[in-house]
Fold:
Amino acid sequence: MQATLAIAAAVIAEASLSFLGLGQQPPAPSWGSMLNTAKNYVDQAPWMAIWPGLSIFLLVLSFNLLGDGLARRALDPRRSSYRPGDRVRRHPAQGAMPSASAAA
Structure:
């Protein structure tokens, strides 16, 4: 839960530092350095900036949604131990057999 948010923050931090030239150096691939290179060609080739930016956005969004889903599932007080697909087991006294007084 907390780890997924930390991973998303690390992705943004790495991309930001690489964009500023403080992260991965140009031979190593990084979405931040790709965006830094693409800023010079936005007029001629906007897709050079769109794909790395969209990739960062989708990766961070997916980690945030994953962390939110895990937190809701683990910490929801209204959620019982029942999971979809489990079979409901009834105790015999809960209406499985008619009582003798009802039959008379």
